[in-house]
Amino acid sequence: MSKEKNEKTQEQQNIDDELKNSKASEADTAKSHGEILKQQIIEGQETYDKSPVSILLSSLTAGLEIGFSYLLICTLYFFLEGKVSEDTIIKSLSLVYPIGFIMIILGQSILFTEQTSLLTLPVLNKKRSLASLLRLWGLVILGNLIGGYLIAFLLVWFGPQLGIFDLKTIEKIAVHVTDYHGSVIFVSAILAGWLMGLLSWLVAASKDTLSRILIIYIITAVLAFTGLHHSIVGNVEVFSGLISSPKIILVEYLSFISLALLGNALGGAFFVALLKYRAFVYDVKG
């Protein structure tokens, strides 16, 4: 047992040494796998070191800011309705969907799906415990959801008052998001979490703001165009329907948000954090 423990300790030391030796690339060369992983682990640990109040406020800010994506989604839907087909409208929403994500990620607010794989990496690297990860996830989700509720109440009132969309638009979007079997929403959310974890990885790999904006836009536009379920945007979409339409009931909202959050978490933690980390570990072993 002691021998096995020593082997695991030595393996972890080798991984840490390899990460420590990963130096920053020159400005004109791509970052290596080790460099990106090291940056992600450091950024993840910095989030763990923040105070709970700071994390809650930052995640609440992200929940509010994602509302700008929803504002544009509703406005564009209302603007195009009756001018083009329903299918065309739904696909066109991918043009404005990324805006809130760009604000959040460049502004460094804490968004659950973008931070999922980032916060998992220090646990895989044995720098943080699983319990601390779950506590942090819970805090981030709480802030994101509360921010989403607040912006939903504001936009449900504000949109019709300004005449940029109406309650029927809110209802149609909410029904479109939830009109799937639970298993479909769950698998869809896993794929969305995978893409969001990959987004975090690609942003870390990029070297300038313009390329980061392009990466954020491409990945989140893919989410919208394919209709994959993102828990935090979906929270605003479905909760807005819940408070303004009889077609969305509380059980439906709770089912959606539970499946979307779980799917997003699995997608980001497994397909990005675990696989990227294990790929590096096997490279070190080799």
Summarize the structure.
Helix content is 80%, strand content 0%. The protein is mainly alpha-helical and 286 residues long.
Describe what you observe in this structure.
By secondary structure, this protein is an all-alpha fold. The protein has one domain: Glycerol uptake facilitator protein (Up-down Bundle), CATH 1.20.1080.10. 80% of the residues lie in helices and 0% in strands. It is built from 13 helices and no strands. This is Formate transporter. Keywords: Membrane, Transmembrane, Transmembrane helix.
Name its key features.
286 residues, Glycerol uptake facilitator protein, 13 helices, 0% strand, globular
CATH class: Mainly Alpha
Helix share, percent: over 70%
Give Rg in angstroms: 20 Å
Helical stretch tally: 13
In the predicted model, the low-confidence regions spanning at least 5 consecutive residues are none
CATH architecture: Up-down Bundle
Q: What portion of the residues fall into strands of 2 or more residues?
A: under 5%
**The CATH homology group name:** Glycerol uptake facilitator protein
Mean pLDDT figure: 89
Structural class: mainly alpha
End-to-end separation: 24 Å
Region (Disordered): 1-32
Main location: membrane
Biased composition (Basic and acidic residues): 1-10, 17-32
Keywords: Membrane, Transmembrane, Transmembrane helix
List the helices and strands and how they pair.
Elements: H1 2-20, H2 33-48, H3 52-65, H4 67-80, H5 86-92, H6 99-107, H7 112-124, H8 130-162, H9 167-178, H10 182-205, H11 209-226, H12 231-244, H13 250-285
